[in-house]
Amino acid sequence: MKKSMIEAVVFDLDGVITDTAHYHFLAWKQLANEIGITIDETFNEMLKGISRLDSLELILQYGNRQHDFSTEEKEEMANKKNDHYRLYLNDLKPEHVLPGIPELIRNIKAEGIQIGLASVSKNAGTVLKALELEAAFDFCADAAKISKSKPDPEIFLTACSGLSADPLRSIGIEDAVAGIESIKASGMFAVGVGHTLQEADLVFETTNQLQWVNIKEEFDHWISRCETPDSL
Ligand code: BG6
Ligand code: MG
């Protein structure tokens, strides 16, 4: 069998490994309601992959209340949203890992390829523990040490570096527009899950469709195109 050129596969967490993206939305919706702003799932697409404080800023701008609160009040609101979110996490269990993900992880591991996590959530450790998935990851980038949220490439580059993997030979999997931008800016092959991810190199509607054979095949086409010199 031809040895894979793939050095690592780096997963986003919320919305890829489990449906906590929906819990983030519910918690933000509750917080926004408390200050008289109504958000819906379409607006929420913009919040995916964005840090807690940056998300709050976007919600305040959306409600035209960006000048109404002090830094302390904003921190209080962000903490309150986190309290709402963490209540949902209390019910999170291993059976909430999204369909297709356990098999995908097994197939990647069977080829000796490393697995990383690139989530900007400070709750990522709690989520992985509740899902009993901590052992599946060879390296998890620490959101607390990341200074720029997605779409900046920092978190995917940190994950690759923690795995000693070349980003140009690694794959990132994301459900957010900002996440796909982050993967592409880091030079990796981008796999998108969901709609509105046109910038990805490969898109699937649901996690169930994330077949490792298909991902590898597309990665091989992509890397051979990348490695063909322009002069040929
Ligand atoms: C990302 C989510 O994974 O983490 C965002 O897509 C969220 O919606 C961000 O705001 C930060 O998460 P947390 O748990 O630190 O508030
Ligand atoms: Mg996500």
Structure report:
Belongs to the HAD-like hydrolase superfamily. CbbY/CbbZ/Gph/YieH family. InterPro entries: B-phosphoglucomutase_hydrolase (IPR010976), Beta-PGM (IPR010972), Beta-PGM-like (IPR051600), HAD-like_sf (IPR036412), HAD-SF_hydro_IA (IPR006439), HAD_sf (IPR023214), PGP-like_dom2 (IPR023198). This is Beta-phosphoglucomutase. It is an enzyme of class 5 (isomerase). It contains nine helices and six strands, in the order βαααααβαβαβαββα. It has 232 residues and is of the alpha/beta class. The chain has two domains: 8-18 and 95-231, HAD superfamily/HAD-like (Rossmann fold), CATH 3.40.50; 21-89, Putative phosphatase, domain 2 (DNA polymerase, domain 1), CATH 1.10.150.240. A six-stranded parallel β-sheet has the order 3-2-1-4-5-6, sandwiched between helices. The mean pLDDT is 95. Magnesium ion (MG) binds at residues 12, 14-16, 21, 48-49, 175-176, 179. The site of magnesium ion has 10 residues, from loops.
Task: Give me some keywords for this one.
binds 6-O-phosphono-beta-D-glucopyranose, 232 residues, 43% helix, 9 helices, DNA polymerase, domain 1, beta-phosphoglucomutase activity, binds magnesium ion, 2 domains, single chain
Approximately how much beta-strand content do the residues carry? 5-15%
Give the overall shape. globular
What structural category arises from helix and sheet content? alpha/beta
Rg estimate, integer Å:
18 Å
In CATH's first tier, which class of the largest domain applies?
A: Alpha Beta
Q: What order do the helices and strands follow?
A: EHHHHHEHEHEHEEH
Number of helices: 9
Low-confidence stretches: none
The CATH architecture term of the largest domain is 3-Layer(aba) Sandwich
Number of domains: 2
**Largest beta-sheet characterization:** 6 strands, parallel
Helix content: 40-55%
Strand line-up of the largest beta sheet: 3-2-1-4-5-6
Bound molecules: 6-O-phosphono-beta-D-glucopyranose, magnesium ion
CATH-defined topology of the largest domain: Rossmann fold
Strands, total number: 6
